[in-house]
Amino acid sequence: MPEVMFAGPDGRLEGRYHHSKQPNAPVALLLHPHPLHGGTMNNRVIHALYQRFQGLGFSTLRFNFRGVGRSQGRYDGGIGEISDAASALDFLQAVNPNAHSLWVVGYSFGAYVGMQLLMRRPEMGGFVSIAAPASHYDFGFLAPCPCNGLILHGAEDELVPESSVKKLVDKLNTQRGISIDYRVLPVAGHVFTPEQTEKVVDAAEDHVMTRLNRSRMALAAD
């Protein structure tokens, strides 16, 4: 789990990076919850996802947004954090120029930033959005949504009503060629227990590996 420092738009950004030994391995960028509410790259869910993607053979990066940990700069209301994520993706692509698939994975605020990144980087192949703050931010920018992905939410989320996320999913699923895998975790709130975190990570693995296996089968059939 080597520590990395890479250039961001407002100073150096601190991360942890695992480089896959597999040639042309897929890559995953992990984005943490809100910096002003205790969110860091060491968040339980982000750390568990980092380990799982690493185990799946991905080159994987988690990092601290500006002003968090040893990352330079200060919180910028989401705008600067989107630029931070773009710089993190630049780093990943620079060290994985032949990666066959690029994924962005975000939790809470990180899910919002990840979806914004999707709209700016058409090379992204998929996403995992966990506890997306659909009642706090306008997700209308996803028009059209550039790719399929997983949206997972807690049934009893006290900060973001599940109904607001279901409304977003229904809207995305009306778009041509888009099929959102929507999963609701029973009993779970916005912050997941260790047991719930394991279920979140299992769901992410199931979705991602299903998508990658379908892609491999399609290539083999050509």
Automatic annotation (TrEMBL):
InterPro entries: AB_hydrolase_fold, Hydrolase_4. Gene3D superfamilies: alpha/beta hydrolase. Keywords: Hydrolase. It comes from the Bacteria. Residues 36-132 form the Serine aminopeptidase S33 domain. The keyword Hydrolase applies. Coiled coil: none annotated. One of its GO terms (molecular function) is hydrolase activity. This is Alpha/beta fold hydrolase. It comes from Roseicella aquatilis.
